[in-house]
Amino acid sequence: GFSELAITKLDILSGMDELKVCTQYRYDGKTTRRFPSEPQTLEKVTPVYETLPGWSADISSVRHVSDLPSEARDYLAFIADYLDADVGMVSNGPRRDQIIPEVGTPIAA
To answer: Fewer Cβ close by (within 10 Å): the C or N end of the chain?
Structure first.
């Protein structure tokens, strides 16, 4: 298992009205959280999404999680909660200094 996540490229989600996160897969009338490993099964699977609100602000200069838009913090908190792991760091741009370190959870919205 794992205990901490590194979320990369958060900045590319800026400007999206909503974010769809696949949380389950539907196959043969049943749902599961496990990603299907066999190609023949994958062809017949329907993803099940949770829809979260997006944000419009440019976050590329943000260096503290508290300065992120509330929707971005909610997105990070959703992923951390769903995967039962802390968010250790977030990158928000291509440069080495575009990192929000030591995010942790819970993430205050």
So the answer is: N
